[in-house]
Write a structure and sequence with these properties.
The protein has five helices and five strands, in the order H-H-E-E-H-E-H-E-E-H. The protein is of the alpha+beta class. Strand 1 and strand 2 form a beta hairpin.
Length: 161
């Protein structure tokens, strides 16, 4: 475990982050929800999956996540990307959407102090789907909650900016 990952684990923040992704999985009725943070080189720090879906936390990403075109839109432009129909026959074999068998996704930035510090990804691996306004709003609310959780608290001496 890297020093940054250890510091994140020691901050006591991981259970709260896990609760957020669990709630997003429930509201969106997706297959998988992941939270990646820049603080730990965009590794998955919290994940919720349906029992029939493979978890991403157990394996390294097929490519540098930051190089992915969708991730670039999220990280560089702080843009929420909503894809109702992922056409895996049109992406490279090492593309995360193909490797993770994604059929539909929402990827949203985690913003703190005006910069993207992570991403919340919601995947459906079973079917193409039209994401509802309620589901999109739940993802937006979750990203704001994660950004708030990551804001250092002056009352907690363990958390430092």
């Amino acid at each position: 475990m890297s020093q940054r990952a250890r510091r994140l684990a020691e901050s006591g923040m991981l259970p709260a982050l896990q609760k957020v992704v669990d709630e997003v999985l429930d509201v969106t009725r997706a297959s998988r929800v992941t939270l990646r943070l820049e603080e730990v080189d965009f590794a998955v720090v919290a994940e919720a999956v349906l029992p029939s879906v493979r978890a991403l936390t157990a394996e390294p990403p097929p490519t540098d996540v930051r190089a992915d075109p969708v991730a670039r839109r999220v990280f560089d432009n702080q843009e929420i990307v909503v894809v109702d129909r992922v056409h895996t026959d049109e992406v490279a074999p090492n593309d995360p959407r193909s490797a993770y068998r994604i059929k539909a996704e929402i990827v949203a930035p985690i913003v703190r102090d005006g910069r993207c510090v992570g991403a919340l990804s919601v995947h459906d691996v079973t079917r193409w789907r039209r994401w509802t306004a309620t589901q999109r709003l739940a993802v937006c609310a979750a990203t704001k909650e994660v950004g708030h959780l990551m804001t250092p608290s002056t009352s907690d001496p363990r958390v430092r900016p």
